[in-house]
Fold:
Amino acid sequence: MSDSFRALRLNKNDDGQSHEFVELTENDLMEGDVTITVSHSTLNYKDGLALTGASPVVRVWPMIPGIDFAGTVEKSSHADFKEGDDVILNGWGVGETHFGGYAGKARVKGDWLVKRPAAISAAQSMAIGTAGYTAMLCVMALADTSTDAGEILVTGAAGGVGSVALALLSKMGYQAVASTGRKEEEAYLTSLGAARVIDRNSLSEKGRPLDKEQWAGVVDAVGSHTLANAIAQTKYGGTVAACGLAQGPDLPATVMPFILRGVTLAGIDSVMAPREKREAAWAQLAEHLDLDKLDAMSSQATLDDLPALGEKILAGQTRGRLIVTL
Structure:
């Protein structure tokens, strides 16, 4: 059929989770007031969890995963969008409770979409994806931190959030320090703008409740002991933006840094962030992200590559950002 499109679909039964590649039509899509022809998607850590079933990310079965997509509006009954508009979607439970971006078409609520900035191509918008948009929200949370206040720590620096955060921070005049467990990525991290690279082992074990002041601010995608130590090492009045849990969801910390140093712990949620905040983040990405650095941290994939790549991202074997061309 001419109006059919290909999709990656996840199924679940008593034997567990499986995936299949299927041909669907618009009649198979879920409810929404905007239908989009999807050109690109991407792979985030959460997508890896969904694809592998390592964590119960998917809550409706069967599911088309993919928490991000970029494309062009095909049909719309939403006041803010018309046929031909270039749009981006990040989050809102798409790929978890509503069919997501790993398909040639999507139908969603227009309230979930933002218009793609003209300065950023569809492929580049997915090189950014939720990881890069989250990195921008983290950097926005550090807005009161002056560029001469000292170094900004970026944990999980070779990952998607970390890579974009380094590029943004260096472009905006900050001294960014990259923490990674992958020593072989030092040249890559320096090329993105890291002033120096430290071994994550200095942060990943149980530390002191209050440590020597080192960081003017922190972008953390790791959680657990790493986040606790980063907080304990943050300078007086500094902000720590927390957005991930690659090491774990626990936070074995004390209140000491908050009550003795006035440290702020800013929780960064990209999934349900209101549209105004999203639009502000995408406008700042268009202004501050060095697209040459974005291209350098990006690699290409197809729908067929995703099941294997889902395993790899959870094992920490991917770097930077991945563009999936539909």
Summary: The chain has two domains: 5-116+295-325, 130-267. The mean pLDDT is 96.
